[in-house]
Amino acid sequence: MKLSIDGRDIEARDGETLLDCALRNGIEIPHLCANEGLAPYGGCRMCVVEIEGMRGYPPSCTTPAAEGMVVRTQGPELKKLRRNVLGLMMLEHPNACLLCGRRAECEEYRPEPEKAGRTTGCHTCNNKPVCEVRGLAEELELAELPVPPIYHQRPLERDNPFMDRDLNLCILCGRCVRVCKEQQGRAVIDFVGRGSNARIGQAFDQTLVEAGCNFCGACVDVCPTGTLSDRFAKWYGRPDTATATTCGLCDQGCAMSVSSVNGQMVGARAVDPGVPLCVLGRFAMAEFLAGPDRIHFPYVRVGAVLRQSDWRLALEQAAARLDHFRGEAFAFVCDPSSTLEDRRVFERFTREVMGSPHFITAVPDAWGRSEVSLPEGVRAVITTGSFFPAEAAADLEVLVLMDCYPSALQEKADFVFPAAVLAEVEGSLPDDNGVPRPMRAGCAAPGLALPEWRIIRDLAQALGGEALGYENVESIRKEMDCGPVLFHMNREAAPPAALDITKRRRHFRNHLLENLVDGLQEVPADPACPVVRAEAVKAPGAPFMAPEAPADGRFRIVEKRELIPNTHEIVVHAPEVARKALAGQFAIVMADALSERVPYTLCDWDAEAGTITFVVLEKGQSSRKLCLMEPGECLAHVTGPLGIPLDIRNYGTVVLLGGCYGIGAMYPAARAFREAGNRVLSVAEARSWYLEYHRDKLERVSDEFIQSTMDGSNGVKGHAADVLKDRLAAGEKVDLVVAVGCPFMMMITAKETAPYGIPTLASLNPIMVDGTGMCGACRITVGDQIKFACVDGPFFDAHQIDWDEVKDRRSAYSAAEIQSVGRTASVGAHHHHPGGCGCHA
Beta 299-302 vs 415-418: how paired, if at all? Predict the structure, then answer.
């Protein structure tokens, strides 16, 4: 059938909707609830179109294409209608960043979102790099909302393995509910409640595990807003590569697409959308490959200690030791997790280089565990895993362990070589029917880890063998005379573990997977599986970690409350700090013995009661640990007061600007400046009305207080700097400006005061280690000088600060922060009501 869309003659297929027909022909129509592979729904109304001869504006996702239709997808009325629909949708979605007048400037300065808990705007949204709503808001020029938005104050749900659910972001498009029913044939999640209390959840507030979820991840894949997110991958942003490969965590040979960012695997999806991956492929592999205990470097035993080495020296020493055990005194042990190409090289090395018949392939059981016995007379072994007991290694004279994670066998090993595995390697693996399936390297191996065939090739050359002169995997395949290998596609049924989560493998090379992937500890497994739980083994070369000091009453949390989402006020008993504290100073806090030493501005203190007060933004692992603590618990350490206090004297008119966590620091400064005789104007900024706090406190110590919001929901639209800009333009005389908040907020404040020559101070608390000026971690450039924030600050001339350097230093440890925060529980443990209840308790 033929029809016209936007003046183009289009040929439609039978049963095709207008939206599908338009998209297939490269004509974009805004849509949110529609998704490829799902039945038409018509819920969001974003895809409305005009059809000649038809009344109203029908949704294109539910309107069948018909012969002779004349369709218009664009036009002023359609744009206005879609903008109004999106505006109504945004009333219950964090939207302030979409409406902010400085959005473009902010995006340029800080393009990546902050790793906070609940999302309160684009700046704290894990979905920011790929958000469909952001694109629509820009396309439709959404600049304001008809009424102030609603924020449901729903807790971030992290009580399910692998997935976070932030219902504050949900627009009820229903994609997740429909993909679970239509593609997976299940109904684990559904709409719960009615009206403004409607949400996505499980019946009777069950967990996903209790509701029978198999963790295929399809709901995460189709979510357009980031409400559902992969806990491990959520802060890595948009993947830069996607590589089709085969999952090697069991013998099903599932085709998977591996996503990576800067060479690190962050997620996976099924190549065949109709055949889901099991929980191991979809969620566990990325975390497994990125584990902090991965073996990164070669190690050589020196006495009782394994010492880090380089490849040349380690291979030369291993070759010298192995050279004495050619023949039947040598054995090579591996299992099917090594590629066919790897095993070809292993076997040739064993038989041709070492002259031994003992090439042994351990056969794993249904749960992935395998064990072999070493032949009598064997004195030297190379193994790719702990396939024989550590006791059996006691009689060996040389043991070379080539593996990805530490194991009990490494305590007996003379050499430990880091191996690339799974999505880090090229080659092929046989499925359960013996059909080879392609392996493609979709991510980089950590540290100096190498493909196993290459390690053995280089070892053979160190032994004087020239036969294994392979250049790459293709040269090995050519020797094997292999035909083309194809992905396992068009399967009649999903693999057993994707249909029944208890059928999943539990071991990889005899490493218990739930010891290495936290979420698997919450996922049920077949009770018949004979799990052997090995004691935790310290990675070779791992630093000694001091045990946590026992709590003795020092630094006890006296009071704690959440002021606004993600922002907590914490009162701590620290009398020595409270006695000496002055406005503008800070303290360095450690939540526990393994936390970073994080600087927090002193927001109040009571010398008589011996308490100090911090306002802490949950952002990253250490602050999350701190915000998870409860009154009565003790911090590991508090050091302070540190830094040079504010120079409190009578300037005349002092303007204090605060944003986010910096609002807490405004109170002692305003109090001190006012007591010194100044006229104090305090301006606090928030993204929306529900993010305001400390208004009453600041009004008491200020001559004038103004609260602004970026979305204008309280009547004053803009940043604090915009309020100051307007006052200065109106001719108000200001003698000193002090700004405390995020670097962007302080930077734009400096830009607005610079033309007037007004002295402006900004508070910088970058990453610190010792807090005494010795480590240099907090160095910054002010004018033509290098300063240290811990001893020269925290307040500096805002017009002289190198703000680009501040931005770069704040993101220097982003990758490490992302990995650590994904393994930490979320704030919200205090919330004892059913998940997503929306209460304000």
Answer: antiparallel
Q: Residue 63 and residue 50: Cα distance in Å, rounded?
A: 11
In angstroms, the CA 368 to CA 125 distance is 38
How many contiguous H segments (helices) and E segments (strands) does the chain have? 24, 37
Sequence-distant (6+) residues with CB within 8 A of 822 are 231, 232, 234, 235, 287
Q: Which two tokens stand for residue 385?
A: 């895993």
pLDDT digits (tens, 9 = 90+) for 492-521: 888 999 999 999 999 999 999 999 998 999
Neighbours of 123 (CB within 10 A): 22
Residues 461 and 575 in one domain: no
Could you say which of 642, 666, 699 is where a domain stops? Answer: 642
Give the whole-angstrom CA distance, residue 154 versus residue 140. 28
Looking at residue 483, which CATH number applies to its domain? 3.40.50.740
Number of other CB atoms surrounding residue 672 within 10 Å: 20
The DSSP 8-state label assigned to residue 353 in this structure reads I
CATH number for the domain spanning 622: value is: 2.40.30.10
Query: ω into residue 641 within 30 of 0, thus cis?
Result: yes
Burial class (CB in 10 A: 0-12, 13-18, 19+), 430: middle
Looking at the domain assignment, is residue 206 inside a domain?
no
User: How wide is the angle at C-alpha 97 spanned by C-alphas 95 and 100, nearest 5°?
Assistant: 115
Find tokens 């290495």 and name the residue.
Answer: 516
Question: How far apart, in Å, are the Cα atoms of 508 and each of 110, 251, 717?
Answer: 40, 11, 56
Q: Tell me whether residue 334 is in a domain.
A: yes
In this structure, are 97 and 62 located in the same domain? no
DSSP 423: G
CB-based burial label for 722 (10 Å; 0-12, 13-18, 19+)? buried
Task: Please give the Cα distance from 78 to 55 (Å, whole number).
Answer: 14
3-class DSSP string for 273-316: CCCCCCHHHHHHHHHHHCCCCCCCCCEEEECCEEEECCHHHHHH
Query: What are the start-end ranges of the E strands in 755-794?
Result: 760-763, 779-782, 785-788
330: nearest Cα among 272, 381, 395: 381
Domain membership of residue 89 as a residue range: 75-146
Secondary structure of residue 81 in the 3-state scheme = helix
What is the distance, to the nearest Å, from the Cα of residue 720 to the centroid of all Cα atoms in its chain? 30
Are residues 350 and 441 both part of a single domain?
Answer: yes
Order of strands across the sheet that contains 241-246: 241-246, 255-261, 264-270
- The alpha carbon dihedral of 172, 173, 179, 181 has a sign of positive
151-205 pLDDT, tens per residue? 998 988 988 899 999 999 999 999 999 999 998 888 899 999 888 789 999 988 8
- Map residue 192 onto helix, strand or coil: strand
Query: Among all chains, which residue has been given the structure tokens 């340029």?
Result: 108
Spatial separation of the C-alpha atoms in residues 35 and 230, rounded to whole Å: 19
By residue count, the chain amounts to 841
Q: What is the residue whose two structure tokens read 């620091």?
A: 665
Q: Indicate whether 393 and 481 sit together in one domain.
A: yes
Beta-ladder partners of 709: 686, 717
Number of domains in the chain: 5
Is residue 378 in some structural domain?
A: yes
Task: Note the pLDDT tens digit of each residue in 201-228.
Answer: 998 888 999 999 999 999 999 999 999 9
Q: What pLDDT, on a 0 to 100 scale, did the predictor assign at position 808? A: 82
Question: Tokens 């949204």 correspond to what residue?
Answer: 125
